[in-house]
Design brief:
The chain is of the alpha+beta class. Helices cover 41% and strands 14% of the residues. Helix 2 packs across helix 3 and helix 6 crosses helix 7.
Length: 237
């Protein structure tokens, strides 16, 4: 059992223990593999179900960690085909591979579709490389606290600008509503995108299944939700 799961530890203390640096004595392969599993469990999972089980194999030069689905943690209502469950296993695998490389082990992940399906990660000695992805593992978290209504600071906005760009992707930050509106008026493409977003929201909200039993569904129809004078609805798509 991981130390962070022990009774009596506060939430902050448990989080600190769970995110501590890898601690394994030189030559203690079993402890190192357990530490790699700990880093794997820091991965995000669908609805935070942590739907994984780990099987360690340490027999001489052959070392491997198998990640299996924990079907007892399935969420069949929202994930009927287990797609999210196996994506979660993939996230755990990426964490494990990055942590292994940072500790001198090259991880080779292979998916085995037999049975319930599992991911076997074989481990071979290599030169240790601490990548930025590995360093980010202990920093990643999902905050579900209430939004305090405060705008982002300038340094936080700069971080978003730096993190967002990629191949064919750029970041456009609109922090004031009048600037957002003027941008819509000057660029027809964002207008279309915005219109599609609102239209899709309306279709989802007022579909026959969603409309039944809702106050909005009882009081107004999809057509009355957006009047012709609404500037967003009237934009061409």
């Amino acid at each position: 059992m991981l130390a962070a799961c022990s009774a009596g530890a506060s939430h902050d203390e448990a989080a600190r223990i769970l995110r501590r640096p890898v601690a394994a004595s030189a030559g203690d392969n079993t402890m190192l593999m357990r530490e790699l599993v700990r880093y794997a469990t820091l991965a995000p999972s669908s609805h935070n179900t942590q739907c994984w089980k780990f099987r360690l194999r340490d027999q001489g030069p052959t070392r491997s960690i198998t990640i299996e689905p924990d079907l007892a943690r399935r969420t069949p209502v929202v994930d009927p085909d287990d797609h999210h469950l196996f994506v979660s296993l993939g996230c755990a695998t990426e964490n494990l591979v990055q942590a292994a490389l940072a500790n001198g082990l090259q991880g080779d992940a292979r998916f085995d579709p037999t049975g319930a399906g599992a991911i076997a990660v074989s481990l071979q000695a290599t030169q240790a490389i601490s990548s930025p992805l590995f360093q980010a593992i202990s920093e990643r978290q999902c905050t579900r606290g209430d939004y305090d209504g405060q705008p982002l600071t300038a340094p936080e906005l700069r971080l978003l600008e730096q993190a967002g760009p990629g191949n064919g992707v750029r970041v456009m930050l609109l922090t004031e509503r009048f600037k957002w509106w003027s941008r819509r008026e000057s660029n027809p493409r964002p207008q279309a995108i915005t219109g599609q977003f609102y239209m899709r929201s309306a279709l989802i909200r007022f579909s026959p299944h969603r409309r039944a039993g809702t106050r909005c569904g009882r009081s107004q129809s999809p057509k009355s939700r957006f009047e012709p004078s609404d500037p967003i609805q009237s934009q061409p798509m």
